[in-house]
Amino acid sequence: MSSERETLGFQAEVRELLNLMIHSLYSHRDIFLRELISNASDANDKLRFLALSNPDLLGKDNDLAIWIDGDPSGATLTVRDHGIGMSREEAITHLGTIAKSGTAEFFKRLTGDQQKDAQLIGQFGVGFYSAFIVADRVEVLTRRADAAPEQAVRWESSADGQFTVETITRAERGTSVVLHLKDDAKEFADPMRLRALVRRYSDHIAFPVRMHKQGAASLDYEDVNQAQALWTRPRSEIKDEEYRDLYGHIAHDGAEPLAWSHNRVEGKREYTSLLYIPARAPFDLWQREATRGLKLYVRRVFIMDDAEQFLPLYLRFVKGIVDSNDLPLNVSRELLQQDREVEAMRAALTRRVLEMLAKLAKDEPEKYAQFWREFGRVLKEGLSEDPGNRERLLPLLRFASTASAANDETVSLTEYVARMRPGQERIYYIVADTLDSARASPYLELLQQKGVEVLLMADRIDEWVMGQVSEFEGKRFKEASRGDLELGGLADQAERARIDEERKENKALLKRFKDALGDRVLEVRVSERLRDSPALLVHGEGELSAQMRRLLAANGQAPPAGKPAMELNVSHPLVRHMDSLKAADEFQELALLLYDQAALTEEGQVANPADFSRRLNNLLVRLVAAR
């Protein structure tokens, strides 16, 4: 390891970030202190955890706190801790680069709105760099808890595109961040100003935040925050603002949570949980392998940041804390996976989250609508992953429907069932590539004529989700584009008689179509669905939909063979015209054109675009010539 002073360049993304910090977030400068205190708290937590298996790391100095020193005469501010500290390599890595995946998304989220952009700091692991909002030079003095005093490190930068690092001698472990304040930021060296910010942002930190006593020449320190884990206090003593502040600390999210639940369980097993529902999705929500989980404490001792064993994957957006009195202090991820107590806690915490969402949906529907926009697709995964809670999940689902004018208006299954038509026995839905195409689908023509509401689905996950459920409140789900419509009490005698009569009268026409289309279709039949369109293709109940076949093909899998039936609207003028055609080749051309048109409606593509274009052009030429 080199002990010489090195000058290194920042990663390109860091340079861009520093430019943002210095020039774009002037009006929200005080967030830097929140981030530096949070980092110091994390460093203390990590050391306390490692000391469980290696007590020598703490040694005689077991006072884990955070010290803040403001020097108005020297225009400096120092935030220090006796936590885990950093090695030279760690200082270069952690303070000179940002994980590229998070960086790209960070800059993508920037809006130019200072309030919103300030909320992103910390969420993407860039909290340290907020120091440059108020400082024109930052020094970091640090020594790892397991390193010798002569292996300490000094890191320094003036945010000019580079930083220096050198090995120094430092007696105390942990990290000191020294901010040399800008001329217009000297207010942050004022002890009164600093005390107010600590109480505002960090009162809930589980470690003491200490400053020199007020009004005295003494060098003694005093605690300026409560330094009590908020979740250990009675709910009746905690203000909503304190709950929101703690959320910002553990989630690195400046936006307020939509809801939270603070609960203590006593009896056979004892633990406290504090769970939050965020207002917006994190940047890595769809990276199923990304770090997730609750902060785990055992008897107020921090164990790990991301204990994913306490909630199922489909609730990966939930933030919070679980503090157990029963688990061992040396618990590992492997032990958590095998522990029966953890499994029981997981089941209880999952129910608590679902109850919290149900309460939010009932009492604050606007907030729940916001939740659904951000996390609805993730929640749907639970229908397959968590069959034991399927009955709790179904009422939480929301869908666009033909009863709403806009695609962002949604309906619950409970509301749908309550307004079903007299005689309706099925919950009808349709899956398409977009909500607009679902709303305009010819498969819905009869149902819309009868005033039957249809649920509209366009998420890639919807086809798979609906395969996991069969009914809700005794009403079976029915996909409107598959098999028979199963109208039941919705079909009157006159309609049944008309369909039967049309089948008898058009036997010859149906046969002509089948002969013209050959093996492309299983059969050609009179449609009960259609009112305005001439034809469509219908797959059987057990067959894969067009959307699912496309997904399989996109993943390199050959979808199983299956033939659709063609349904004809025998009252349509085009079909009536074809019935009068004598020339077999002209009839076949139009039949194939109708088939391709129906394939476009169902699958979004035709098997042979060139043939389709040729037939269409031939038809247009004949129409022009006939004029």
Could you please describe the fold and organization of this structure?
This protein is α+β, with helices and mostly antiparallel strands. The chain has 4 domains: 6-227, 2-Layer Sandwich (Heat Shock Protein 90); 231-376, Ribosomal Protein S5, domain 2; 399-486, 3-Layer(aba) Sandwich (Rossmann fold), CATH 3.40.50; 492-627, Heat shock protein 90, C-terminal domain (Four Helix Bundle (Hemerythrin (Met), subunit A)). Helices cover 37% and strands 18% of the residues. The strands form 4 sheets. A 9-stranded mixed sheet has the order 1-6-5-4-7-3-2-8-9, covered by helices on one side. Strands 10-11-14-12-13 form a 5-stranded mixed sheet, sandwiched between helices. Strands 15-17-16-19-18 form a 5-stranded mixed sheet. The radius of gyration is 33 Å and the shape is elongated. The protein starts with 5 loop residues before the first strand and ends with a helix. The mean pLDDT is 87.
Give a short overview.
The protein has 627 residues and is of the alpha+beta class.
Give the helix/strand layout.
Elements: E1 6-9, H1 12-24, H2 31-50, E2 66-71, E3 76-81, H3 88-96, H4 100-109, H5 114-120, E4 135-143, E5 152-157, E6 162-168, E7 174-181, H6 191-201, E8 209-212, E9 221-223, H7 240-251, E10 259-265, E11 271-277, E12 294-298, E13 301-307, E14 319-324, H8 333-338, H9 340-363, H10 365-380, H11 382-385, H12 390-393, E15 400-401, H13 413-418, E16 426-431, H14 435-439, H15 445-449, E17 455-457, H16 462-466, E18 471-472, E19 475-479, H17 493-505, H18 507-517, E20 524-526, E21 535-538, H19 546-554, E22 565-568, H20 573-579, H21 584-603, H22 609-626
Parallel strand pairs: 2-8, 12-14, 16-17, 16-19, 20-22
Antiparallel strand pairs: 1-6, 2-3, 3-7, 4-5, 4-7, 5-6, 8-9, 10-11, 11-14, 12-13, 15-17, 18-19, 21-22
Helix pairs in contact: 9-10, 21-22
